[in-house]
User: Fold this.
Amino acid sequence: MVEGWSSQGKRHVLCLILSVGLPQAAAAFGLEHRPNWKDVDKPVRFIINMAHVPSTYPEAEYVALIQESFKPWTEVETAEVLFSIDKSVIRDESKNRPQADGVNMILWNVGVIPRNARTWGRAFPFGDECDIVVELTTPFKRADVVHTIQHEFGHCLGLAHSTAVATMARFSHFLPTLTHDDRVGISVLFPNPRRPLNQVTATLRGRIMFSNGEAIIGAVLSIVEGATRQTVLSGFSGLIDQQKQVDRSGRFELPGVPPGSHQLLIQPLKMYGGVSDDHHGIPTEDFPDFQSLRVDLPKLKAGDVEDIGKLVVRE
Ligand SMILES: [Zn+2]
Assistant:
């Protein structure tokens, strides 16, 4: 789900995942347990229902904007998103709600879901299909359409929310396209065997605990890039195997660390206030509280697997 509102002159977008009929499961970058189309190797057809689309732009332009929003997901080098998008347009007033009918549909219907007035969109994965409801209210810009659908399509692909600067961030950074964190997430879900992620990036391992040895599961891990000071990658403690498997001893494995000099920032989830209701796929509902810790990482090269050992945080 994407939400937007104005607050003290600053605009935000709030995005929430809704996983209907899917098991809740672990994973970082907010990976869901399984993407809907994992085994699909033929074009996935999306129907665009223009029935309630505002007249802001011509119909052909909406189609072009939707194409623009999908495209970056299929162009990640380290991912192999096998399906392509075959779009067609209908104008059907009766199909104004997401439904499990075997048809992937993008529809525009403000207020289709009980909510406040700030929602921009929501994805509805129904097992083998996914509907995207766009709820942008006028006025809106082309970039709002692209951003909203790009984010919701990420949910359809199996990504949940990220705490990094990313298209899949719940609070939008109004990015023009995908970021490193998005690309790592999709590469873990749809690996490209001809260009493995771990050959062009580094892998970071470690273990987070209190001084008494108690494991910390669900600490937010952020790779803060040396040059930009931005969080370029995120994950959680207590998740190993590229953030796909729960580890009760507080270990973590973070794939996709860009080569270079960075810091690892370890924070309790409460630092990301308001994002806990979908749990980001974290394997705990008992979010530990502790003092944030910032660690300088050794300079990493592509292909490195760096184990930084135990990191102790204070209560
Ligand atoms: Zn969302």
